[in-house]
Design brief:
about 15% strand, two-stranded antiparallel ribbon, alpha+beta
């Protein structure tokens, strides 16, 4: 995190633990008008939710394409703070956890669950194929699987002998 004064002078830079309490304590410790700027990332929704009640303005920026040069968290934080101070914010991303926050979260969860189910079905179908079981792929369930016919004459003979034994066992159990 970087704190700049109204003239652009660096007042403080710090590395803060990714913990809601530690982040809020740091932000509350900044005197004057608190304006916060951060890059969009995997935790930006959570950070927005945690920190927005403690600042006057919070801006989430999209990461500019083709960002070149050496990367440094301290340098990036100072650059973002200076952009916000000067009003040169580019690629601002709208983040609001009002009426549609829950809908956004539910749609994200639905997408993740759907992706997971598709991945599991594909893994099951691959396992069945590796065991010689053909799946139709048309139904929603793998219950329509059937065993592939043997390919060699020896395996055909073995399969027919097995089916005869099964049939004779079934007949003998009916006679008892």
């Amino acid at each position: 995190m970087a704190v700049l004064g109204p003239s652009g002078k660096r007042i403080q830079t710090a590395v803060v633990e990714t913990n809601a309490g530690a982040l809020v304590d740091f932000v509350r410790g900044v005197r004057g008008t608190r304006r916060l700027c951060m890059e969009e990332g995997t935790m930006s929704d959570w950070l927005y939710e945690v920190l927005s009640p403690h600042v006057e303005e919070l801006v989430v920026l999209g990461i500019p394409p083709g960002k070149k040069g050496p990367k440094s968290d301290a340098r990036d934080a100072l650059g973002l703070a200076n952009q916000l101070r000067l009003g040169n914010v580019e690629l601002a991303v709208w983040k609001s956890h009002g009426a549609f926050g829950q809908l956004r979260e539910l749609s994200r969860v639905y997408t993740k669950i759907t992706d997971y189910v598709v991945r599991v079905k594909n893994r099951l179908k691959a396992m069945y194929r590796s065991r010689g079981i053909v799946t139709s792929g048309r139904s929603g369930h793998l219950a329509t699987c059937r065993r592939r016919a043997p390919t060699t004459s020896a395996s055909r003979a073995s399969a027919s002998a097995m089916s005869r034994r099964t049939a004779s066992r079934a007949d003998s159990s009916r006679l008892r």
